[in-house]
Amino acid sequence: MKSILVMNGPNLNMLGQREPGLYGHSTLADVEQLCRDAGEKHGVVVECFQSNHEGELIEALHNAGRAVKAGKMIGVVFNAGAYTHTSIALYDAIKAAEVPVIELHISNVHARESFRHHSYLSPVAVGVIVGFGIEGYALAIDGLVAKLGSK
């Protein structure tokens, strides 16, 4: 059975506490359960990973790229948090690992501060989901399976 990796970057461990008016009251554990349920619907295993450290996210992308090449993984759903707007290193990691990534944002970043309007990840993502709340994670899993298949 193939897998999908759901990666969450900095401060996403604070979901449910951090700006609930913007991000909602669901916790990261709630998001991870939603993702596992979405994966089960498609017959894929969902692995979840969160880190506040850029280097750990890069290593996870490298490992995911190897798993995709080995036929064990479909791709990655990635909410890079603020690193989306700052990290050339994550862009390089996605490109180097040749890992299919769906870029995800819980809030509509285009309706927020102007510094959030630019993404370093979008040019190397196979798709982008923005502004659907935590339901965006399930949409991203649906999208990865639809685009790349689970066989």
Q: What tags apply to this protein structure?
A:
single chain, 151 residues, alpha/beta, Rossmann fold, 5-stranded parallel β-sheet, 39% helix, globular
Summarize the structure.
The chain has 151 residues and is α/β, with parallel strands linked by helices.
Q: Describe it for me?
A:
It comes from Grimontia celer. Keywords: Amino-acid biosynthesis, Aromatic amino acid biosynthesis, Lyase, Membrane, Transmembrane, Transmembrane helix. This protein has a 5-stranded parallel β-sheet with strand order 2-1-3-4-5, with helices on both faces. It is globular, with a radius of gyration of 14 Å. The N and C termini lie close together (8 Å). The protein has 5 helices and 5 strands, in the order βααβαβαββα. The mean pLDDT is 94. Strand 3 (73-79), helix 4 (88-97) and strand 4 (101-105) form a beta-alpha-beta unit. It has helices spanning 20-23, 28-42, 54-69, 88-97, 135-148; strands at 3-8, 45-50, 73-79, 101-105, 127-130. The protein has a single domain, classed as Dehydroquinase, class II (Rossmann fold), CATH 3.40.50.9100. It is an alpha/beta fold and 151 residues long.
SSE arrangement:
Elements (H helix, E strand, L loop, with lengths): L2 E6 L11 H4 L4 H15 L2 E6 L3 H16 L3 E7 L8 H10 L3 E5 L21 E4 L4 H14 L3
Parallel strand pairs: 1-2, 1-3, 3-4, 4-5
Helix pairs in contact: 2-5, 3-4
Strand order of the largest sheet: 2-1-3-4-5
Into which percentage range does the β-strand content fall? 15-25%
The total strand number stands at: 5
Instruction: Note the main sheet.
Output: 5 strands, parallel
Using the coordinates shown, work out and report the CATH topology.
Answer: Rossmann fold
What is the name of the CATH class? Alpha Beta
The CATH superfamily is: Dehydroquinase, class II
What is the number of independent domains? 1
Please tell me how large the radius of gyration is.
14 Å
Shape: globular
Q: Quickly give the CATH architecture.
A: 3-Layer(aba) Sandwich
Order of helices and strands: EHHEHEHEEH
Spans of 5+ residues with little confidence (pLDDT < 50)? none
- Helical run tally: 5
Structural class: alpha/beta
Task: Estimate the mean pLDDT confidence.
Answer: 94
Report helical residue fraction. 25-40%
What distance separates the N and C termini? 8 Å
